[in-house]
Amino acid sequence: MDTKLQNLLDYTLDELKDLVKKEGLPAFRAKQIYQWIYQGKSFDEMSNIPKDMRTKLAERYTTGKLKIFRKLTSALDGTIKYLFDTGDGNLIESVLMKYKYGYTACISSQVGCKMGCTFCASAKCGFVRNLTPGECLGQIIGMNSDNDITITRVVIMGIGEPLDNYDNIIKFLHLLNSGDGLNISYRNVSLSTCGLADKIIQLAEENLPITLCISLHNPIDEQRSLIMPVNRKYALDKLLDACHIYKLRTNRRITFEYALIKGVNDSEEHAAHLIRLIKGILCHVNLIPVNEVSDTGFVTVNKEAVERFKSMLEKAGVNVTVRRSLGRDIEAACGQLRRSAISEGD
Ligand code: SAH
After folding, report:
1. What are the phi and psi torsion angles at 96 (to 5°)?
2. Annotated catalytic residue: which of 93, 135, 161, 331?
3. Alpha-carbon distance 36 to 153, whole Å?
4. 93 part of the active site
5. Known catalytic residue at 120
6. Percent of all residues in the chain with a pLDDT value above 90, rounded to a whole number
7. Where residue 293 falls among pLDDT bands split at 50, 70, 90?
8. Beta partners for 256?
9. φ and ψ at residue 110, rounded to 5 degrees
10. How sure is the predictor about 178, in pLDDT bands with cuts at 50, 70 and 90?
11. What mean pLDDT do residues 245-265 have?
């Protein structure tokens, strides 16, 4: 998107009403325009808006429609991975997954990431900029309109650290939930963070009943700091305190994500530490065999290792699931497609 142009998807309906007034247009046009942009339409397609009005708007604004730069469909399970072009030379990655209960979008919150987790493909490409609320919405609208579907669940688990883009993500959540827009229930939204404890507490105060997912990956401080630099700033005690506060405020069960890496965090000792760490907190552990990312040196675990770890947790009464991996054949995981597209351009 041309950076000089304002993205209309960044606006609430009330803000758009003000804007329309400022542009000297009748107020009822705001609702019409809002409906079009939420359908992923361009100004050209707004058939009930007079042409001169559209031309005038297009001089200052964009509809927020993201161009599809690349699209890959999994032959295994129909998962679709998108690379969207933000119009300023950046690519963002989003994934559309189909489950029995409907469509789920996994969206990115930033172009790149600053967090530097050593197992993650996104970290390898550095940080470029935050996404705006409209660019987060644009990913969902783009996938809805490309497939003529209605996405009902959203996970903020794509590229970027959402709590490092706090204000934009909060506005995005409000827009996502708004009856004027996509009308997606907060309960159908999950936000994943590497553990910015101060922001987790701030999020608890927003009182939004979304699901908070914590990328834990190691229950021992010195070891977690080696794979997740964020742990040097917010060690496990701080992180767990924040989780307790989040639970108290929202009464929502927390999900701890745990990517099993062979020989790194998959031992009996790790399971025992993990059990102790999360004791007494209403939560659920999601085990993920780590996706192998080239030049990280990390190796994934086999089924037996996953089962072994899982049963240790279960014996201690921990609620645990193993994440089903979708789109294995299309690099659907964790920033890998963007990374390969960026390196093609080198
Ligand atoms: N920054 C946020 C959200 C983006 S990452 C966070 O850290 O949670 C989304 C999830 O994918 C996180 O749980 C992250 O730790 C995990 N992840 C990253 N690289 C991975 C890999 N190679 N294998 C498995 N999970 C990975």
Report:
1. -110, 125
2. 93
3. 21
4. yes
5. no
6. 85
7. confident
8. 214, 285
9. -145, 160
10. very high
11. 95
